[in-house]
Structures are given as C-alpha cells and as structure tokens.
C-alpha cells in the first residue's frame, strides 16, 4: 500500500517544505498540494520539486474550469520537468461555490469538460499538433469565432514523459465512471471500505468496462484521517474529525445540491445526512458535528490502536484502495513524522 498526504502550509510554507523533505525520508510516496480558493498550487509544487527528490508531487486538485486545457497541459509538463518526472496531475470539477463564486466562471457540463481536458492534455504531452473539436473546447478556434489566423500548434519543448499520470477527484456516479474509464487514478472523498460498493460499485464497473488497457489498473487514492492511539483516546480523535464531515455533509452546497450529502445518503445515512444539513444550514455547526454518527466517522478514518489500524488498512486494500492519502492527527511536524514512520511499517 502506498502512502500519501495532503500538505498543510498553515504554519508557513518554508516549514511545510522542510517537513515534506523529512516525510519523504520517512517513506511518504506522494504529496498532494491543494488549491481550492487559497494560494495557487503550481508555485508551491515547483518549490517543493527543488526540495524533494524521490516522492511524487501532485496537484490536489486543479479545477478544470480555471485554466484552458492547453495551459493545464503546459503546466503539468513544466512541473514534470522541474521534478524530473515526479508530477501527478490531480484534476477535478470542484463545485459552483468555488468556480462561480470565486472565479466568476460558469459551472457547466463537468463531465464533457473533464473528458475533453484530459484528451487535450494527452495530445499536448505527445507533442501532437493540437486539433480538437469538442462540445466545449475548439482548438484552433473556428474562423467564424475568431480572427481566422489560428492554426494547429504543438508544444515546443519535449516533455520528460509523454504520459503524465492523471488522478481525477470524483464523487457522483457519472464522474466516477468517467474516472474509471479515462484516468490513471481516482480520488474519492470519505471512502468507506465496507460501503464503497454501494456508492460507486456500478459506476466503477461501467467505467472499467470501457477502459483502455494501456492505462493499466486504476489507482484508488483514499484519504482517511490517521491517529494511532489507545482505545481510550479514540473518542477524542473522532471528535476532531467530526466537524470536517459535518462541514461537507451539511455545508458544502444547498439542499438538493450537495455532492457530499448525497454520498452519505448512498452509504445509508439518509436521515442522519438530512439532520446534519438542517442543523448546519441553520447555523448550528456544533450540533451538526455532534449528529455525525460514530460509525461513519470511524469507518472513513484510521483511528485506534496499532492492531486495529492495521486491520483497517487491510479493509481499505480489500475494497480497492491502492494509496492511503492520510491526514495525520498530530499537533506538530515531529508528531506527523512519527505517525508516518509508524504507519509506513503497517503498509
């Protein structure tokens, strides 16, 4: 089992970069740099490429709406160049709150856009003259929509790799089916080993049935919180995770338009998901967090004594996870390092 981690730079990015180098030596296989509506991920990934040497570096995620497909491809090729072939392109549709509310771009046709972005990126990396006539992107721009001067171009530089891995963040059945069909990896959120098949089994099967064998097996990047602790400490750590689940299930979207709430329902928590959302949208965030079931929190996390965590790692493996992108529940860098070292021995 590979180990990954999303980097948190709240304490300062220089400190995060130094910690990343330590984590690499401890056995971390891949580090994800988030973007959302914070600092851009690209500048940080370039900096980390100079401070690390073996672990993969991934965007976690770049939104498909905020860069043109060819700029996304150029950026990925550039990051792969400065990292000596260690970059992984994490892509996702994000959501209307970020895409429309922060970027001012219409959130439409996420499936069509995702497919076309991936197709165009791979053409750019193969150094083909890019010609694309899709529903959402046309390259070159047709004469009746532009100056008429556009012509097919190819990337000037020779990329380090002509096939940079693409990991697609996806939750909804159609998005997950697309990930299983065209991406190298899939990044779900709140992966529940025993119930993942209820949420995504049919979608994964449908996508894999159309998958090009040259892509190889689909890598699955699950993201559990990690705390190796005595059983008596388990409630403390579950309570640390609970507000995060409540935020997504209750607050990431309006009623009827919340991907994460829908996921909780597919896991079988319809009544609980409705209550969490009602409380959260009414401003009762603490009560919403308290309403998140213990079973759900613990099932999507790796929290407990070492033997229990090892058993749960096997459950994730049996459910199809190939990389555990953990969130170490530690207060400081030395604590996170110790956790990763201990966890490495289990994987």
Q: Could you characterize what this model shows?
A:
Residues 3-322 form the Luciferase-like domain. It is an enzyme of class 1 (oxidoreductase). Keywords: Oxidoreductase. This is F420-dependent oxidoreductase-like protein. This protein has 347 residues and is of the alpha/beta class. It has 2 domains: 1-224 and 302-343, TIM Barrel (Alpha-Beta Barrel); 229-301, no CATH class. It has helices at 13-26, 41-51, 69-82, 96-99, 110-125, 173-182, 196-209, 234-251, 259-266, 270-281, 285-290, 294-299, 306-318, 333-346; strands at 2-6, 30-33, 56-59, 62-63, 87-92, 132-133, 138-139, 166-169, 185-187, 219-222, 225-228, 302-304, 323-328. Helix 1 packs parallel to helix 14, helix 3 (69-82) crosses helix 5 and helix 6 crosses helix 7 (196-209). It is globular and about 70 Å long. The relative contact order is 0.13. The model has no long low-confidence stretch (mean pLDDT 96).
CATH hierarchy, class of the largest domain? Alpha Beta
CATH architecture of the largest domain: Alpha-Beta Barrel
Q: Mean pLDDT, nearest integer?
A: 96
Radius of gyration: 20 Å
CATH-wise, what's the superfamily of the largest domain?
Luciferase-like domain
- Work out the helix count: 14
Low-confidence stretches: none
